[in-house]
Amino acid sequence: MYERALAGREKALGPDHMHTLTTVNNLGGLYINLGWLQEAERMYEWALAGREKALGPDHMHTLTTVNNLGLLYSNLGRLQEAERMYQRVLAGREKALGPDHIHTLTTINDLGGLYRNLGQLQEAERMYERALAGYEKALGPDHMDTLTTVNNLEGLYRNLGWLQEAERMYEWALASREKALGSNHI
């Protein structure tokens, strides 16, 4: 359906129209889900070039595509390129939305995971703790986004051998999830 929509939009509106570029970006996401990573990269690069030209490098739609490229590069093991993308998104979101906006915090959390994969564990901890503080303030200690970051910190602490800190994070996440979802939730 996306490919059909893309062909129609490209023909009717042109390859650089915002509706066409939105379809291109969405098609990139579908290709990732299908495991077609080269095709996804091609779509995201097309969407990024068009959005940068039409909207500028710091527009939220442009940064969404930059973030998508960061996720793709991370999946491809191109971690330095992923870091460059995430840093760009973080700078843009901090400037436009502020340091405590949910979208900014999500990028900070994603950077934490990237730094963990790069073996930069102190930087990962700094990102996760920053995201956690922001999520707690904005969403509360029991929100699923907060708990995802708690879980990320638990894994990092476990990897570092900081078992008491890991246990504290695990117990927090478990208690909150049982409260929200019930003890029998899968």
TrEMBL record:
InterPro entries: NLR-like, TPR-like_helical_dom_sf, TPR_rpt. TPR repeats lie at residues 63-96, 105-138. This is Kinesin light chain. Pfam families: TPR_10 (PF13374), TPR_12 (PF13424). It comes from Sphaerobolus stellatus (strain SS14). Keywords: TPR repeat. It comes from the Eukaryota.
